[in-house]
Amino acid sequence: MAPGVAMKMLAGANxxxxxxFKFDAGYVGGTHDHTDAEFSYVLDGSIIxxxxxxxxxxxxxxxxxxxxxEFRTDTGATLVSVFAPAG
Length: 87
Fold this sequence. Notes:
The structure is a single chain. The protein is mainly beta and 87 residues long. It has strands at 5-13, 16-23, 32-33, 38-49, 52-55, 59-62, 67-68, 71-72, 77-83. Strands 1, 2, 4, 5, 6, 8 and 9 form a seven-stranded antiparallel β-sheet that branches. β1 (5-13) and β2 form a beta hairpin. It is globular. The chain starts with a strand and ends with a strand.
């Protein structure tokens, strides 16, 4: 994982995993492509994803074939995501 982010795998089946991510305040992620769909739920804090601010209780989905140009948190955030691991 990159500096400022920690991940804990919670479960996996059929080429999908559920993982919890904790992002430190000030974290800025790099641009990345989604080769498969990804679903996330914000547990605490707030994140800004492609110009949209999401706080605890918000969920979002990234469609396969889309690009994430902006992913950051000013306050820090914890979220749970379901996705297909790379590789």
